[in-house]
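Q: Could you fold this chain for me?
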Amino acid sequence: MEDAVSEGVFRGAQLESHDLAISHLFYVDDAIFLGEWNENNVRNLIRVLRCFYLVSGLNLNLSKSSLYGVGVSRSEISNLASFTGCSTGSFPFVYLGVPVGESMALENMRARFFWGMEEGQKRIHWVKWNFTLNSFDQGGLGIGSLDAFNLGVLYKWKWRFFNEPDALWVKVLKFFYGEGGGFSGGSRIQSGGGVWQRIVGSINHLHESGLLPSNAMAKVTENGATIRFWHDVWCLDVPMMVQLERLFVLASNQNSLVSDYWSPTGWVFAWRHDIRGAVEQKQFMTLMSLLDDYHLGMELDKCVWNLDISGLPVRSKLVERGVDLDSVLSPLCYDATEDVLHLFIQCTIANQIWRRVNLWLDSDIPVFFSMRDMMDWIDARPNVKQQGAIVDTVFVM
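A: Sure. Below is the predicted structure, expressed as structure tokens.
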């Protein structure tokens, strides 16, 4: 198929004003062909499939295939379908055995299963199902909500969107919704009923409602070719446009990528006018201070999950929340108040563990002054599987 497309024998579905065309999608035992609607294109596709049969011996049963048309009449679809031997398809349709757009009340089905109820049977529920879903410490059975699980799976799509820039589906989404895909300012996404619109809406709602911090996923700058300097979260916990508002207004191109400001000699910016005034001068000094440790390389940018351990139930946090404890001292060493920094770094037990890791890795582990220092050191470890496994395992334990 790739040869047929490159030679112009078959013309795929071309995205308007874009060099991206989609001609085929292959699955394990299924395939979808997409192309311009004209008889010659369909004839050539049948010829290509015939050649595939003669070479491989695998015959394609066209009677089990369907022909769909977008923006054409039903009669035109039927005429072309009869020529090819395919059946006439219509929207919505069934794909891989799943009716597209069908809604299933999975949570209700699961609740009936736990209650031991047959279809149509009714029983008295002494505890609300939502309470049952709660964790043990909240009085539930720790079953977990399918809705919450689904939101977590949906959030993975955001991670994949930014980590797979060369994937076909990402290129298509960027064509329709802009480079940000709808996750940040400057995107062309609007409210609606599309699948991607609903995914983006659900993820954005998690941030807007405070259920998930906006910096739950951060961009790691390598070559800066996919990270927008002012709009994306990459250098701070918030976008540059929020922290350095005056400089953002002053920027000649507010949609610049990080790589646009980088040169072999260092950072070079383009402003609407010269920096003047105390506020602009102060923000510019802050900007240059932030960028001191950033030097772009050749590797591709990537997204990583931010590990938020500020909510760990250490004793100092429990006391802040009104929990009555005998002591706030660490139960491991009883030398100091148990907070996150002490638990992972300052405690004598933690020091012994890190010394042991030092022996395992046969390398020098620096002195950590904060959790950020430790996480940066872990991220900067050489890409060696055994070493990475040791460090990750120790940290998780």
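A (continued): The longest strand covers residues 217-220.
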